[in-house]
Amino acid sequence: MINTFLMRKYPKTVRKEITEERIKVTQEEREQAQKFDAMYFDGERRFGYGGYHYHPKFFTEVVKDFIYYYALKPGQSILDVGCGKGFMLHDFKQAMPALEIAGIDISDYALSKALPEVAPYLQKACCSKLPFPDHSFDLVISIATIHNLDLQGVRASLREISRVSKGHAFIKVNGYKNLKEREQLENWNLVAQTILRESEWEELFAEVGYQRDYDFFKT
Prior knowledge:
Layout: E1 2-3, H1 16-22, H2 27-33, H3 38-42, H4 56-69, E2 77-81, H5 87-95, E3 100-105, H6 108-112, E4 122-124, E5 137-143, H7 151-164, E6 165-176, H8 179-188, E7 196-197, H9 198-208, E8 213-217
Parallel strand pairs: 1-8, 2-3, 2-5, 3-4, 5-6, 6-7, 6-8
Helix pairs in contact: 4-5
């Protein structure tokens, strides 16, 4: 397992004002956000993305780092676990058109709003039960997704990501070093069911045999 920083070029969000609004979110509103429907993706910012629209600033440079780090070649395959509207996969195809892409997401709403260029490659599924044979993909990526399940679901998701990967995978999840960071993560993320100390994540990786790459969201 390697703690890699492949998302370092993803634009940073100024969280202070948004977090102040999210602290006021009711339990009912939090549960609605956890349905991953229109409110979460395209509703008010305090409930989620606040309008999840494609912009090249998000993944254009990030995917270049992935391609370089994993030495991806035309004809190889990528799975995005928690693909949303397919923005990252779109930019992978822009950077290397001959890549084979696939994406899964639990949100009917996000999939219905997917970019037309990648929509045929996306399907509804949960990260805890991936609808692909063993060793299907050269690279599996999952960003801000598996921690939205409970601990049992996280374990299953890690095993599934390892199962469908030919060897390379990268995940990014919520992890904290101290109680202040934990509080900040809990105030920020309305949909995560599993928020662990970074060392606890690493113990969990070892427990389930996840030996691929990972990174943690910073508060």
